[in-house]
């Protein structure tokens, strides 16, 4: 079977599996859309409250039902570099809407927390569930029923998935996502990683480490490595929710502002009041999500999206599974190397041809669905472009370059870095897990070694500092799943295990926690499901048990007789300390309701 036919077969499988949920979802969209302009159902008192703070012109416009009103959902705050640029976006959007004969209002704000700030801190245990809070906050903003379309200002890890879930819940409204763009390049990512390793080994102090980190994360915009934040932007573009070429333009530039204004105008054009109504819930379908998965594999994107894509799809009545994601990987080659899969950052990727080049290559190879609907129109081919600033200040687009500007970063389809995608599902007597192979050297993708068991990343780090880990081993870090403590990222382990690997030891990580887009050169079986707190086998492994992590064959095994494993009692950890402090008390309900990682790890019902 050709790759294109295989992708079509997987898409059809998803479509058939999803049919009952999807039909119900689409019927609800049609019912909501059938009510006409949203404000028309409001009483005079409702409407008066809705535009009380507007100027006289906007009040007059919103009094009727022929002027479109765009709701702005923003994740702005000025502490986080990725979201600080959004401070000025509402003014740009309102100006563009007014010039186009419409109105725009800030409908609401959503929280935006940074995993980079909370790594290794108690607050990280709120991170995954912040996605669901963002979805609910989006609903609060849009539930006023004042809007004919919405634009979504978000960038980072849980923010875009949460906004997407919220947007699809209001699927009768058109949705346009507007990115802020990456910060300019600072200290190269490989130099930053080396500095972290030197600090972990005690060879430099905190001042030197902080200096390096500050040179890397140095200004407004998204972090420049290819983690979840930049994977989000790739997804929104390849799924047709950005305007073409918008993802990786730096903030604070004339082109960035021009793209933002253009997005606002496009949101007005695709409302039910015009001739090109594009409700997001109807526009985004199974093919759109398959395109997103293809893009994730082709770029070696974040492992977090094996969770988020399932939750996002479920919000549209689509039952996407890990097996779908894994099967798609078998037919999608890796075309980009961006840190941690290479030395380049996203600015280098963009300069080499970026998403326009990548989309063109994947379309020409037949492994992207071209016949999808996007906010730009019919078909994905218009996204195979490069956005530029025209002399009059508008956005001009050229076809994507025919050749890569740097084949160390981005290659054409026939020159793929590896024949399959960067993510793989592992299966075995330990359950299911995800491994990111794109940054792991082939000779390190199969590790068989005795287990050393930890109940926290702090325990592993303490053992490293005590000199107890200078040997071959598989680190088992358990009780890190969504029900146990909110499934934090265990980012601190990347450096420690990397040091041990560099010393010549065979090491791997197995955990029911997350590693995110920072999953690097050490083989890591993450998101292990069932998690330990639900009686999963990962909780029954003992020190010395031989564990095999096979990223080539796709297996995860503890080499102990199944009967013996079954007879072992499940440990009963004391998780009391994870239930309070830093707001964790308020998230007890989320931990109790959380679905498994392979079902989206969310507190909402899942289509699967």
From TrEMBL:
One of its GO terms (cellular component) is cytosol. Gene3D superfamilies: IlvD/EDD C-terminal domain-like (3.50.30.80). The keyword Iron-sulfur applies. Coiled coil: none annotated. It catalyses: 6-phospho-D-gluconate = 2-dehydro-3-deoxy-6-phospho-D-gluconate + H2O. PROSITE patterns: ILVD_EDD_1, ILVD_EDD_2. GO terms for molecular function: 4 iron, 4 sulfur cluster binding; metal ion binding; phosphogluconate dehydratase activity. It holds the Pfam family ILVD_EDD_N. Keywords: 4Fe-4S, Carbohydrate metabolism, Gluconate utilization, Iron, Iron-sulfur, Lyase, Metal-binding. This is Phosphogluconate dehydratase. Binds 1 [4Fe-4S] cluster. One of its GO terms (biological process) is Entner-Doudoroff pathway through 6-phosphogluconate. Its cofactor is [4Fe-4S] cluster. Belongs to the IlvD/Edd family. InterPro entries: 6-phosphgluc_deHydtase, Dihydro-acid_dehy_C, DiOHA_6PGluconate_deHydtase_CS, ILV_EDD_C, ILV_EDD_N, IlvD/EDD_N. It comes from Aquibium oceanicum.
